[in-house]
Amino acid sequence: MSRFNIRRTLGLFLALGIAAAGIAGAAQTGQTSSDAASARGMQIPIQQLTLKNGLRVVLSEDHAAPTVSLCVTFDVGSRNEQPGHTGFAHLFEHMMFQGSQNVGKGEHLILVRVNGGDVNGTTSSDSTIYYERVPANQLDMALFLEADRMRALRVTQANLDNQRSTVQEERRLRMDNQAYGKTGEILGDLAYDNFAYKHSTMGSMADLNAASLEDVALFFKTYYAPNNAVLTLVGDFKSPEAAEKIKNTSKTSRNSPHRRRWTWPNPHKQRSAERRLKIRSRACRASTLSTKLSPEIHPIGTHSTCSAIYCLAGSLRGFTRGL
């Protein structure tokens, strides 16, 4: 996770979302401008604390529905990978559902879903995120599942081999066997000089094949620890009780002695020349693709509002896909 003020970013993001919803609602229901202004003035309660093991916690009570949303964000993405070890962050997005000390293989997904919840994970260049949305009375279960795999994930050769094959098949499906599937990978390689962003989150087939159990176990010990994570909880709960539950479930999780601080590339090193690359493919029709890197928002952290911009952009993409 990039270093930014969580309260300011969440507040700005939520305020922007509420403002957009308020304006749209006013148009559809005949609300007056004063009603929309009132919606824009809503206050989102946010409480932050840091536990002794380094876990950062963000709580936001919302009793509108008897549900809770739990999200654990690890400060690790493909940017943290080293040459010859690409694809590890995305590999662990899958490995984290293969069981832990007290949870069997695949049971994490089953337990959440049979109790009426939703669960998933996602990996980007900058972070890896896991979430559960469950009925409010299943909060204890969600906290236990996250704490158990953070503390004692089953990193075994069998799980590695199984999920390595899964990730490689995903690459074939989404990239290698799609007409324009490698577009993002090619543009990233052309646009960036820093290896952290030059390679794709999916990783290379060769690096995935070469990954050893020792390499993967070290990656887990380095980055999947409470002092490298933020737990965000939103929904129908009482903050003092929720905070106590989080402390109790995560107190046995170990810190990472191998944790590596991420240093952003030099934001003042800007590119002045255009770069072009021509690719011939029988599978693709003639097309021109271009991208522009703005010094204001690349990399994250070089502009005071860039994190909120990324949140808003992601929200808008999700909204348009649902239309």
Chain-wise SSE layout:
Blueprint: H1 6-29, H2 33-40, E1 47-50, E2 56-61, E3 67-74, H3 88-95, H4 107-114, E4 118-123, E5 128-135, H5 139-152, H6 157-176, H7 183-191, H8 195-198, H9 205-210, H10 213-223, E6 229-235, H11 239-250, H12 306-321
Helix pairs in contact: 1-2, 1-12, 3-6, 5-11
Task: Please outline what is shown here.
This protein is an alpha+beta fold. The protein is 43% helix and 12% strand.
What is the CATH class designation of the largest domain? Alpha Beta
Query: What integer value in Å does the Rg equal?
Result: 21 Å
Strands across the major sheet, in which order?
A: 1-2-6-3-5-4
CATH fold node name of the largest domain: Cytochrome Bc1 Complex, Chain A, domain 1
Mean pLDDT value: 80
Can you put this structure into words, describing what you see?
This protein is an alpha+beta fold and 323 residues long. The protein has two domains: 46-259 and 274-288, Metalloenzyme, LuxS/M16 peptidase-like (Cytochrome Bc1 Complex, Chain A, domain 1), CATH 3.30.830; 293-323, no CATH class. It has twelve helices and six strands. The protein has helices at residues 6-29, 33-40, 88-95, 107-114, 139-152, 157-176, 183-191, 195-198, 205-210, 213-223, 239-250, 306-321, and strands at residues 47-50, 56-61, 67-74, 118-123, 128-135, 229-235. It has a six-stranded mixed sheet with strand order 1-2-6-3-5-4, covered by helices on one side. The longest helix has 24 residues, at 6-29. The protein is globular, with a radius of gyration of 21 Å.
